[in-house]
Amino acid sequence: MNVHNNFKALAAMLLIAASTAHAESKLVLPDISVSKANAPQAQPAAPANGSTVPVPSKENAGQAAKTPEAKSAKMVQVTPGQSNDLPAVDGSVMHQPKAVKAEPVETMRQILIAPGVNTIIPIAVGHLNRIVTPFEDPIVQTVTGATTKVEKNVVYVATDNDTPVTMYVTPKDDESLALSLTLAPQKVPPIEANLILDEGRSAQGKSSGGLGVRRHYSGAARKWEESQPYMDSIRGIMRALALNKLPKGYSLAKLAPGDTVPACYQDGLDVDFSRSQVMLGHNFQVLVAVASNVTNQPLLVDETACTHPTLAAASVWPNNLLEPGMKTEIYIVLRVGEEQTDDSQRPSLLN
After folding, report:
1. Contacts of 23 (CB under 8 A, 6+ apart)
2. Quick one: which of 280, 312, 311 has its CA closest to 199?
3. What's the pTM value of the predicted model, to 2 decimals?
4. Residue among 312, 313, 329 nearest 271 (CA)
5. CA distance 345 to 20
């Protein structure tokens, strides 16, 4: 009986000891340090029974961060060819050189030129330049080393240095008229200069044709005018104007200070010269004005209503019978007087 009781007591003690040993057992793993940058941070798993996981306090977190195991190495990005002391600079703050845009050069030029006034014209150095003159057969006089060649009314000029080229250009049959030019070589494309002669203006701005009529030299106009009878020239001028063309050798201009306009008077007719056109020939000059009927009844335009000391002819086109408010063009042809000789002048004491 005692033996049996002792065996039960011994079995109970062994069972209690085994339970205690199982409860106090645990798994010990070796300490493995993993870099913070390489090891992902594990999120705490929620307990299966829904209980709350204790969160470490700020003090405990600070102490944990101070431990050698919790410290992580700082990651520094190093760019090849640069020092760690010079951080990378954004490209937007770098100074970008601005592209230089070439300015366009006007290679075709219209140049108003007057006798007795030196005119400076830029030309291309090392290239062939073209000077279009108003003369049919120009003569070039120059002492510079530039190469010049005359073809009809065009002068070709070429130079290889920066020395200005000075020259006089005169018509073949008239040495009393000369154009003074200074050609300035520049590093530009070849230049073509079209010389428009304003012979009626002297250096002082006075009219040389008398009675406010500009004298204009044009070899082509002179040849056309003098190749036919006087009346045929006038009819040819009127025919060209009616077809909206210019007679051969004529040039188109506007009224200038000192030009006189014809005096036109007819009851009910208003002649407007404010927008008039001027056609310059050699022996003739033509004015084109607008005539309008300002009455309330039809009006027949009298072509003799306009007068001028050098009047050669007058005509209206396309209508000479105007209804109230209707307009038409009126053509007035003036003779250009012969140019006076350059006599010696006495300065007036009153000026």
Report:
1. none
2. 280
3. 0.48
4. 329
5. 146
* pLDDT string in tens for the chain (351-residue length): 555 566 666 666 666 655 554 444 444 444 444 444 444 454 544 444 444 445 455 455 445 445 544 455 555 555 555 555 666 666 666 666 666 666 677 788 888 888 888 999 999 999 999 999 888 889 999 998 899 999 988 999 999 999 999 999 998 877 778 899 999 999 999 999 988 876 545 443 444 444 456 666 677 788 889 899 999 999 999 999 999 888 888 888 888 777 788 999 999 999 999 888 888 888 899 999 999 999 999 999 998 999 998 999 999 999 989 999 999 999 999 998 654 444 566 777 886
Residue 164 one-letter amino acid:
P
Residue 46 structure tokens: 């929620």
DSSP string, 272-338: EEEEEEEEE-SSEEEEEEEEEE-SSS-EE--GGGEE-TTEEEEEEES-SEE-TT-EEEEEEEEEPPP
Ramachandran category for residue 126: left, alpha or beta (phi over 0 → left; psi -120 to 50 → alpha) = left
Name beta bridge partners: 331. 288, 315
Residue with tokens 């200070």: 257
Kindly state the tokens that stand for 227.
């190749």
Q: What is the largest CA-CA distance in the chain?
A: 177
End-to-end CA separation in angstroms for the chain: 170
Check if the beta carbon of residue 189 is closer than 8 Å to that of residue 167.
no
What dihedral do alpha carbons 73, 77, 81, 82 form, nearest 10°? Answer: -90
Parallel, antiparallel or unpaired: strands 119-124 and 179-186: parallel
